[in-house]
Input
Amino acid sequence: MNAIDRRGSFAAAADELGKVPSALSYTMQKLEEELDVVLFDRSGHRTRFTDVGRMLLERGRLLLEAADKLVVDAEALARGWEPYLTIVCEVLIPTSTLFPLVDKLAQKSETQLSLLTEVLAGAWECLETGKADIVIAPDLHFRSSPEINSRLLCTINNVYVASPEHPIHQEPEPLSDMTRIKYRGIAIVDTAKQRPVLTVQLLDKQQRLTVSSIDEKRRA
Output
């Protein structure tokens, strides 16, 4: 049916498939009998698909694509590559840092990648719930399963920053907790849905503004 639609006639389709037109026509008639439906309108000068025939053609294409994809996925697994991979980066690690690695991976496999961003406990929760295969995030010391393997990639030092016009710059350094608590801190909302949400690097009684992204935090 694909060849008939692609080539526009039984004769051209038969030529592509290496069959005689009568053999292809007989095959289609047998299919109509087995399904008890009319797939082709033969009333005009040129045979056309009926609505049922067109639907069967489109559904058949989907099945063929799915079958081809299944074969590709199976071959990838046999070579040791995952067909799909979801990597979650905690908001401190820009996903753009992985782009060069994405290009290198594409040269070796057809793995379909998803790069997502989560915040604090939300990143680890993705790993625990199966939403992510790999997480790149600060170690928050609550990995719940011994099956989670980890390795240290880098160390990030937290630095308190403020706009040049902020009055905190008039305070004597080094800044004490008593000084910092007088000023509002900016936090990014933890994206965890099941775990208790976290806020880090802010004092317990410090006034805070919570925003949804690191870009909003910079602008605030």
Observations:
- The helical segments are 2-7, 10-17, 21-35, 51-78, 99-106, 121-129, 177-180, 214-219.
- Residues 2-78 form a domain with the Arc Repressor Mutant, subunit A fold (CATH 1.10.10.10).
